Structure formats: C-alpha cells, structure tokens
Amino acid sequence: MARNGFRILDSDMHVFEPHDLYLRYMDSKWGDRIPRGQPRKKHGQIKFALGNGKPLRPSGTQVLAATSPKQDTAESSPGEAEVAYRYEKPFRRNYDAISQLDAMDEEGLDAAVLFRTFPLHCDDSLEAGYANDLCRAWNNWISDFCQENPNRLKPSALITLHDVDLAVDEARRAVQELRAVGLSLVPEPCNGRHIHDHYYDPLWREAERLGVALCFHPAASPNQDQVVHRFKGHSNEAVLINAFRNPIELMLAVGSFCAGGVLERFPNLRVAFLEGNCSWLPWALYRLDERWELRKAYTNEPLSRRPSDYFLRQCFISVDVEEDLVADVIKRIGDDNVVISTDYPHADSHWPHAVNHFMAVKGVSDAARRKILWDNCARLYGVI
User: Fold this and answer.
1) Distance separating alpha carbons of residues 220 and 231, to the nearest angstrom
2) Are 90 and 99 in contact (CB under 8 A)?
3) N or C: which end of the chain has fewer CB within 10 A?
4) List of residues 6+ apart from 246 with CB closer than 8 A
5) Comparing C-alpha atoms, which of 362, 361, 340 is closest to residue 351?
C-alpha cells in the first residue's frame, strides 16, 4: 500500500470481540461459566458475564462507579461515546474481519498484528485450566478472524501465566497450528510470581525455540497485583489509573527482563513492551544501568551486560502516534527498537488519522520513520 512512500505494519492493532465468542469457541464442559454478552448496540467493547449474569471481571465504567459523577452504564469504557461517530462503518459490520481490513485501508496500513481488547483470564482467583481455556477460545477465534486475509492480518495469541506447563503447550499450539506471530501476556505478577521468576523459564525457552515474539501489554482492572490499584476508590481515579497503569507496569517488566536475568538466560528472545509510551525508556535504562554498576556485586544472578545492552539487543517498545518526545528517545537510544501502534478501535485511538499524527511529529528523520513504521515491526514479528 505504501502511504507517503512508507510501508506500515501496526504492531498492536486491537479487535472488538463479538458477544458470542466464548459460547462458540470455548469447551462446552464449562457450562454456565462460559462468558457471554449481549449483542452490541453501539460502538464499544462487550461486557462479558457468566450464565448467572455476574460479570466475569468488571471493566471500564463498571469499576469507576464509586468515584465518577458520570454514570453511563451503556458505555463500556470511558470515552467510547465521544468517538462513536468515527466508527459507524465498522460498527455496522460488528467489527468483523472485513471491517478490520477496511479500517486498515482507510488508515493506510499494509499489515497489522491483532491484539485482544479485554482479556478475561487476568484473575488470580481462576483455576489454571479455566484461565487457559479462556485463552484457547480467544486464540481459536482470532485465528479464524485472520483467515480473511492472512497476509495482512496476523494473530497474537493470549497466554496466561497461571500454570507454566499449560502456557508452554498453548504457546506451541498457537504458533505451530494457529500461526500466531506474537504471544500476548500481561506483565503483572500472577499469584505472587513475577515474570522473571525461574518458574517461567520453560515458557521463555519455548518462545525462544519457536522464534515468536513475547508481547507484554497491561490489562485494565485485572484481579492481579497491579501498581495502580492503590488509587481505586480514591479521588480522580479515572485519570490517575489510566495515566500510570501501562507505563509503570511496563517499566517493571523491562526491569524484570533486563535486570532480573531473563535475557541473560535467553539471549535469542524477542520482547516487546506495548501501549505504554516510550518516552520514559531512556531514563529507566539509565536508572537500571546506574544501579547495576553500584550493586552488581550483590546480585545473586550476575549479569554479563548492562541492563540497557539487553534491551538494545533484544527488545522493542511502542510509540504512541502523537508522542513527540520520541525524537528524544531516538537521540538517546537510536531508532532500532521502536515500533508503532494505532490502537484502533479504542477511545484514545486517532484512527483514521493516526499515521498522519505520527508523520507530523518533528525531529524524526525519514530513515527513522521507515524503521518505526515497518522495519522494526517486521523484525520483531518475523514478518517479511
């Protein structure tokens, strides 16, 4: 397609799940525990509930009920109503694969890796088999979704960290049978285990063997240890939680992988940190390097490189399209580790003018734009 002379690969384009996804794709043995929703009547994500009507996990406006003066129960996520007019065409097709391709055409995207909107497995209270089956159902659905045009639509697969053996099996199935190009994980600890815990080494080893990208993408309102839970129920939580959740969780994930020993143990992994800005990265790497220099004699798992060296060798971070501080990021760490996302079809997406926003950012050379819009994304996901 080549917009303005640039090929474009969206590293993190989202989908809106249909209301009956799990009823159609989840193992029937779960009965009334199979999530289901009501058919979509307006733009926005589906609220999923169990057979008895209880939400599987509260989302969006549901979790703001205590502090928000705006009680719009029909709006699933804050801001959806304000942008609904832009999504009239995909809404009429219920956000199916054809509408996804049409949206890509309108934005000028050649290809996109597709991610979940509201993952249901992010709950420490779920038994491992149930959490894994939620992921399997979603993975089967997104694989079928991408069959509309496999050259342009690339699936990422949901992987839960409740049980590492189940995670390894599902990662292998997703890549080898469903042709997933990425494994989508949340960076938060799962039942007290951090992502650099050796317990998860079999999963990182299998991802390395499969040559598939690990993609850390925080989730909204998980029933897991998330740093912004401290703001729940307090004044202006809608702003505070949304501002800090993704960047801080991704900072901690960068620390786990670059300073916690994972990338020392697995030097061929490719790892992405998505939808949390990139402007903080130079500082975070500086801080990790500084602390490592001061305290490397105290590490129980020695590192042979600086934390920043691991990042530059193996990791990628996404830039928001209007994030003009990316020019400083490129100045400080280079342009080989930055990828881009339109965040379609979410309330804070600039679709169908997301790419135009990025092209208007000052201080970024055409050579750097070419890498960010295609080359780096293609290298991350192994897409030609």
Assistant:
1) 13
2) yes
3) C
4) 218, 275, 276, 277
5) 340
Q: Sheet of 213-216: strands edge to edge?
A: 9-14, 111-115, 153-158, 182-185, 213-216, 271-273, 315-319, 338-340
Selection from 314, 214, 337, 215 nearest residue 264 by Cα? 314
- With 0-12 / 13-18 / 19 or more C-beta atoms within 10 angstroms meaning exposed / middle / buried, residue 365 is exposed
Contacts for 149 with CB less than 8 Å, ≥ 6 apart: 97, 101
Taking the C-alpha atoms of residue 209 and residue 366, their distance in angstroms, rounded to an integer, is 34
- SS3 of 368, please? helix
Domain 94-381 CATH superfamily: Metal-dependent hydrolases (3.20.20.140)
- Going by C-alpha positions, the residue among 323, 380, 378 that lies closest to residue 7 is 378
**Per-residue tens of pLDDT for the chain, all 384 residues:** 556 789 999 999 999 999 999 999 999 999 999 999 999 999 999 999 999 999 887 766 666 656 667 655 566 677 899 999 999 999 999 999 999 999 999 999 999 999 999 999 999 999 999 999 999 999 999 999 999 999 999 999 999 999 999 999 999 999 999 999 999 999 999 999 999 999 999 999 999 999 999 999 999 999 999 999 999 999 999 999 999 999 999 999 999 999 999 999 999 999 999 999 999 999 999 999 999 999 999 999 999 999 999 999 999 999 999 999 999 999 999 999 999 999 999 999 999 999 999 999 999 999 999 999 999 999 999 997
Indicate the pTM of the whole model.
0.95
Tokens of 97: 């694969």
Full 3-state SS string of 134-154: HHHHHHHHHHHHHCCCCCCEE
Q: Does residue 17 contact residue 138 with C-beta atoms inside 8 Å? A: yes
Q: Contact 178/143 with Cβ under 8 angstroms?
A: yes
Question: What is the C-alpha separation between 203 and 220, in angstroms, rounded?
Answer: 24
